Amino acid sequence: MIVNSKINSVVVLAGGVGAARFLRALALVHNKQATTALVNTGDDTILHGLNISPDIDTVIYTLGEAIDAQRGWGLSDETWRAMESLKRYVDVRPTGSIAAPEWFNLGDKDLATHFYRTARRSEG
Questions:
Q1: How far is 79 from 69, CA to CA, in rounded Å?
Q2: In angstroms, rounded to a whole number, what is the distance separating the alpha carbons of residues 107 and 75?
Q3: DSSP characters for 61-123?
Q4: From the CA atom positions of the chain, what is the Rg in Å?
Q5: Distance CA 43, CA 54 (A)
Q6: How far apart are CA 59 and CA 13, in angstroms?
Q7: How far, rounded to the nearest angstrom, does the alpha carbon of residue 99 sit from its chain's CA centroid?
């Protein structure tokens, strides 16, 4: 964390659940407008043609009080119907295909974030 006492600004290098919780606590004691979070994008990936930024999402969901507190990631009251529906394609996909990956689940509400992010990034 870097603090500039002359203008009372704070810059935080952030990544993951711990950083999101730290930022939430910092917001309780410091001016939110004078706080900047530089969030890790090293874990960003593309799945299902969508831009996924797990650390950024964890930070924004936590600060927006929408995080699933029990898991520490994802949105509260999440459902998984889209991922469950994708499973029907696992047995028919060709060997080596990246279609319908099972290793990373995206919740139905979380998908909306990725749809929006991907569309905005394609707009430049």
A1: 15
A2: 8
A3: HHHTT-B-TTTTSSBTT---HHHHHHGGGTTTSPTT--SS-SSS---HHHHHHHHHHHHHHHT
A4: 17
A5: 7
A6: 12
A7: 21
Strand partners, 46: 51
The domain locations on the chain are 2-122
- The model's pLDDT over 23-39, given as tens digits with 9 standing for 90+, comes to 999 999 998 889 999 99
Tell me the pTM: 0.86
By the 10 Å C-beta count (0-12 exposed, 13-18 middle, 19+ buried), 47 is classed as: middle
Structurally, at CATH architecture level, domain 2-122 sits in: Orthogonal Bundle (1.10)
- Give the position of tokens 């203008």: 7
pLDDT digits (tens, 9 = 90+) for 48-91: 999 999 999 999 999 999 999 999 899 999 999 999 999 999 88
